[in-house]
Amino acid sequence: MMLEVKQASKAYGKQQALKDIDWKVKRGEFWGVIGPNGSGKSTLLNLLSGTERADAGEVLLHDKPIESYRRKELSRRLAVLQQDGLPPISFTVREVLEMGRYPFQNWRGTDMDEHAEHILEDIMQRLDLTSLADRPLSSLSGGQRQRAALGKVMAQQPEIILLDEPTTFLDIRYQLQFMELVETWRQQEDLTVIAVMHDLNLASLYCNALLVLDRGQVAGSGCPKQLMTPELIRRIFAVHAYNVPHPDHGEPQLLYRKGPSQTSPDNSDRIGIR
Ligand code: ADP
Ligand code: MG
After folding, report:
1. Per-residue pLDDT tens for 206-221?
2. Average per-residue pLDDT for the chain
3. How far is the CA of 216 from the centre of ligand 2 (A)?
4. Atom of ligand 1 nearest to the CA of 13
5. Ligand approaching nearest to the C-alpha of 273
6. Does residue 185 contact residue 191 with C-beta atoms inside 8 Å?
7. Ligand 1 centroid to 213 CA: how many Å?
8. Does residue 271 belong to any structural domain of this protein?
């Protein structure tokens, strides 16, 4: 198994962020992790990336505990992209991509792959970054900067990428462009993608499987068609929605209802918990 979470729990003080999580991820899958604010999505990603350790249970990468991997080896297998992937710093796009090569650099900082330069050129071409190569990040738009962040992650040549709400700060065009780039890369390299997603419709369009978290526990796991039902959306998010098949390929899409039903006492109770 590529990645396996077994009975994992994590608490911050008294706050139980995750409880008894079981999850299996196979190579090439595109998972969306969804759930309300505070439901444990980022904590789960932190366990997967080895940034945090589970209090109980375990996280296995290729059947070995994640904490048994050396840092550089882990970085060659697994790369993480945060919501705001890169701050607007003065490094150029090319320099940032080179930083992504650190798991392949020896103690002198020399890339051990003789094709490194070619790899970076190829990534820049695929992400339409070539013309931006020598521009500092601080001069780029949010969408261009997130593409550079994706380039840095690609330079790691990982098997798995973990994305934490990667399109939150992007306009709709860049959101779709970002998802398309990830999807193309997944298909071409058999990459495994795990993305925390806020936009449920975008998640349904691109993910072949969804993991639903609610107050630190798994509330559902399966394909979008099974999960994106008005019942589940109401139960988990306390929101009333219709669900309609996408005209192109039938992926379930949500249409949110308007009106007082969205703020019924029932809902505000649930929202009040968080
Ligand atoms: P999500 O990403 O789904 O919004 P998180 O995983 O960030 O949720 O948080 C889950 C719960 O754990 C929340 O109640 C949050 O307040 C708590 N939490 C997360 N990280 C920390 C931390 N470093 N210290 C204390 N509490 C935390
Ligand atoms: Mg989060």
Report:
1. 999 999 999 999 999 9
2. 93
3. 12
4. 25
5. 1
6. yes
7. 13
8. no
Over residues 199-255, the pLDDT tens digits come to: 999 999 999 999 999 999 999 999 999 999 999 999 999 999 999 999 999 999 999
- Segment 15-35 mean pLDDT: 98
Q: Which of the four pLDDT bands, split at 50, 70 and 90, describes residue 260?
A: confident
SS (H, E, C) 247-261: CCCCCEEEEECCCHH
Residue 81 burial (C-beta neighbours within 10 Å; 0-12, 13-18, 19+): buried
Domain annotation covers residue 229: no
Q: Ligand 1 pocket check: which of 19, 43, 162 to mutate, most ligand atoms within 8 Å of Cβ?
A: 43
**Ligand 1: nearest atom to the Cα of 43:** 6
pLDDT for position 227:
96
Burial class (CB in 10 A: 0-12, 13-18, 19+), 95: middle
CATH value at residue 97:
3.40.50.300
What is the Å distance from ligand 1's center to 129 Cα?
34
Number of domains in the chain: 1
Helix (H, G, I), strand (E, B) or coil at 18: strand
Residue 17 token pair: 């962020």
Q: Which is the closest atom of ligand 1 to the Cα of 213? A: 3
Range of the domain at 48: 3-223
Look at residue 110 and tell me if it is in a domain.
Answer: yes
Structure tokens at 241: 């929605």
In a domain, 132, yes or no: yes
- pLDDT for residue 169 is more than 50: yes
Ligand 1 binding pocket mutation candidate from 10, 14, 15, 19 (most atoms within 8 A of CB): 15
Which pTM value belongs to this model?
0.93
